[in-house]
Design goal:
The protein is mainly α. The chain contains 13 helices and two strands, in the order H-E-E-H-H-H-H-H-H-H-H-H-H-H-H. The protein has a two-stranded antiparallel sheet.
């Protein structure tokens, strides 16, 4: 009994010490994460909230009804979904192809991996400025991309201030360019972790490369692919700085605002000063991301069966 009591006392002592170590982190999370989340939920249901006087007219769903009828919010939802549905699949497939190519070479492998990873460590605003220069049409220059189009006999297009589809092309290409290095890094690491004995056994059996890919490589790295898809959806839904880097801060005028941009505008932009509308739109964004994440997880679990 004395031994059990000693073990129990030692456990309780270590447990108390562990909680003491955790207190600073818990306080930090409580002040900067839990409390703001609670505030967002409260603001979202307070109608006609006045930030200066800290007063409101009532509690209800008016903020959600207003946001869902706001043309700027509807446009931001449309833009966000288009960007997500285009960039996530294309960037994941391109990353997989490039990772397979990098995994198959022996000479200068590290060099090419470094080259492909460079955009990830480059400031997004700097990359956005480069893209704007490449695509922008000015009175003095048509830009490099339009110059290439002219070489092939096509007319110049104002990608920055022109038609909606042209702006979408720019932001989708830019987003794919930005997220591609991280996905390549993850998939290259996943490919390197596949057991080489599986490939040796396949070669001995005379299995074709296509069958090896679909029966060995793809199943072995599928957890990483699902991880990249889920994080890709979440990241694309949170897009904002990319659009600002190319089209400027007034995204509503450019018709290229996103859901996160709408939240920011309601707080600090031209429409600023409406924390209730910003909070309700943030909760809608959370609900969309949460739903898509759950769907992805369900699809992943079914694919395992």
């Amino acid at each position: 009994m004395s031994l059990i009591r000693k073990v129990k006392n030692a456990y309780m002592k270590n447990s108390k010490k562990a909680w003491l170590y955790l207190i600073p982190s818990l306080l930090f999370l409580g002040v900067f994460l839990i409390y703001p989340l609670f505030d967002v939920v409260v603001y979202a249901f307070q109608e006609a909230y006045n930030f200066a006087s800290q007063s409101y007219m009532g509690v209800g769903l008016y903020n959600f009804k207003y946001v869902l009828r706001d043309p700027y919010f509807i446009q931001s939802v449309k833009n966000t979904f288009i960007i997500v549905l285009i960039t996530v699949p294309i960037s994941t497939i391109l990353a997989l192809i490039i990772s397979l190519a990098l995994n198959s070479i022996t000479k200068f492998k590290e060099f090419f991996q470094t080259v492909f990873f460079l955009p990830y460590v480059t400031n997004t605003l700097a990359v956005g400025l480069v893209f704007m220069i490449l695509f922008q049409k000015t009175p003095y220059s048509v830009g490099l991309i339009n110059g290439l189009l002219n070489v092939f006999g096509m007319n110049s297009v104002d990608f920055i201030s022109g038609p909606y589809w042209a702006k979408l092309i720019v932001i989708c290409v830019y987003t794919i360019w930005i997220v591609l290095p991280f996905k390549i890094l993850i998939l290259t690491s996943a490919l390197a972790s596949v057991d080489e004995n599986l490939y040796k056994a396949a070669r001995i059996d005379g299995t074709s490369k296509t069958r090896v890919f679909f029966k060995i490589t793809l199943p072995m790295i599928s957890p990483m692919i699902f991880y990249l898809v889920i994080t890709g959806f979440i990241g694309a839904f949170k897009a904002y700085s990319d659009e600002v880097a190319i089209f400027g801060s007034d995204l509503n005028s450019a018709g290229m605002n996103t859901m996160v941009g709408y939240v920011y505008d309601m707080l600090y932009g031209n429409s600023g000063g409406y924390p209730s509308f910003a909070s309700s739109s943030a909760l809608i964004l959370f609900a969309i991301i949460f739903t898509i994440t759950i769907i992805n997880l369900l699809v992943r679990n079914r694919s395992k069966l």
